Amino acid sequence: MTRVLIVEDESAIAESLLFALRRDGFTVTHESTLHAAESQLTECDLVVLDLMLPDGSGFDLLAKLRALGQRTPVIILTSRDDEADRVAGLEGGADDYVVKPFSPREVVARIRAVLRRTSPTWANIPAAVSSSTSGRTLRPTLATALVIDNDTRRALFLGKLVDLTRTEFELLRVLHGAPERVFTRQQLLDRIFGESYAVTDRTIDAHIKALRRKLSQAGAPPDLVETERGVGYRLREMTPEKELVSR
User: Fold this and answer.
1) Which CATH class is domain 142-244?
2) What is the CATH number of domain 3-125?
3) pLDDT in tens, 11-54
4) How many CA atoms lie within 13 A of 233 on its CB side?
C-alpha cells in the first residue's frame, strides 16, 4: 500500500483529501504541524505539504527533507500562487505545486503522476487503471481523467501531461468547460481568437486534428473530441465511475 502523508492545518481540506485518497486505495496519515510531520517523514512514500502551518513554513520541512538526501516526492498544496513561490518550491525540490482552491480528484491524479515518475513500483502501472474493486477496474469519468490547470496552463489525462500549443490548450479548455455541449466552429473561433481576428473554419479543424492526436497519445479515447456533422465539435463525457469492467 502506498503511504501518503498530508501536512495541512485546515481540517476541511485535510478531510477531503483523506477521503479521496483512501477511496482510491492509499494509506494516508495526517499531521497539522511541522513538528508532528517530521517524525513521519521516513514512514511515507509521498508528502502533500501546505506552506503556511502554525509552527512555521512548509519550505523549511522541504529543505530539511532534501538536506537529509531523502528523495521522497513532495507536492506543495497552498494558497500562495505568486510565481516566486512556485519557483522557490520547485527549485527547492518539490515535485509539483497545487494552488488552492483545488479539486481533490485533481490532487489524486497529480499524486499518481508524480509516483509514476519517481517510484519504480508505480512506473509500470498503466495510467488508465484508476482504482479497483474485487478484481474489477473502475472506468474514470471525464472529470477524474482530464485535468485542466488554468494557472500552469497544463492539461493531464490520467496523470499524463498532454503537450499542447497555446491554441490547442485554449480549445480544450473551452470544450472541457461544457462537456457534451456542441460548439460551432465560429463560437470556438470567437472564444479563442476573438471576433477581430480574420481566421477560417479550417483553422479550427486543423487544431482539432492535432488535439485529438495528442490526447490519443496520452491514452484518451480516439472519439473523446467528437464531430457533430455540419455544426461543430463537442467533448464527450466518458463512462461513469459506477460502471465496472473486467480486467
Assistant:
1) mainly alpha
2) 3.40.50.2300
3) 989 998 998 888 888 899 999 999 999 988 888 999 999 999 99
4) 25
